[in-house]
Amino acid sequence: xxxxxxxxxxxxxxxxxxxxxxxxxxxxxxxxxxxxxxxxxxxxxxxxxxxxxxxxxxxxxxxxxxxxxxxxxxxxxxxxxxxxxxxxxxxxxxxxxxxxxxxxxxxxxxxxxxxxxxxxxxxxxxxxxxxxxxxxxxxxxxxxxxxxxxxxxxxxxxxxxxxxxxxxxxxxxxxxxxxxxxxxxxxxxxxxxxxxxxxxxxxxxxxxxxxxxxxxxxxxxxxxxxxxxxxxxxxxxxxxxxxxxxxxxxxxxxxxxxxxxxxxxxxxxxxxxxxxxxxxxxxxxxxxxxxxxxxxxxxxxxxxxxxxxxxxxxxxxxxxxxxxxxxxxxx
Length: 331
Ligand code: SF4
Hints:
By secondary structure, the protein is an alpha/beta fold. The protein is 35% helix and 23% strand. It contains 13 helices and twelve strands. Strand 4 and strand 5 (77-78) form a beta hairpin. The longest helix is centred in the middle third of the chain and has 18 residues, at 187-204. The model has no long low-confidence stretch (mean pLDDT 91). The site of iron/sulfur cluster has 14 residues, from helix 13. InterPro entries: AAA+_ATPase (IPR003593), ABC_transp_ATP-bind (IPR050319), ABC_transporter-like_ATP-bd (IPR003439), ABC_transporter-like_CS (IPR017871), Oligopep_ABC_C (IPR013563), P-loop_NTPase (IPR027417).
């Protein structure tokens, strides 16, 4: 099975003015040398602190932002230079659901027009066929068919997110980018929406890339976990493996902070040293070294670790510890 998403050595750098005092320009490496692939019907979660590059990566997958270097292939098509009919197909085949259903739906459009919009723009369908597809999408997200006549403000937050999901799935995309899709919702309805995403995936066999800061959502939703730090992909692998045996010291700290507080002395949370460094001046060598609890020597502050394959499930880690452990191949 050909992967739905293949990302190879992808980078996005921005020239940023240092402002009045420092003067000159600096290079912000928002995403730096990221590689991974995702199979059909799988979910990958991007996690890491804010500013780690998750959103920049998601925007490149949506072709809302062009990479500085590297390549993205979706269903075998290179996104670079995509135009005309191929670009139109991409715009229906890759859809997004954003965090805030209050902001993402036009208040002046009826639900029918919101849900139908992608098809109206990209496909020439008869009115009857369009109605059939809108009804199919509303049914798939658990909304009544007469919702089509109403305006978004007549619905609750959870129902509005269902409308946003209906408008994303109507074109039967093979890939959906979910940017914090439940974090703006009441806690009581988050699990309903997460279950809805799972049901939709079973029905339509689409892949998801989910940007999330909540690790509970991540573990529930994702088959693969991608951990980012200062624009680098520091660990990538099957979600359960990463949760149970995190290899990169940053992943270990991130996961340990999310575990329940220690009551019986079995779990000692790893407290990260210092603040997240400015992405404009990332530390030398391994960018995590000033905060790392497992530094192995000078090599950590002088040489950037290579991305190294670990195990045989396509997992990778960027840390000298993994290289020193004699991992079989380096990417
Ligand atoms: Fe820590 Fe060194 Fe690994 Fe970086 S390369 S995460 S500093 S052990």
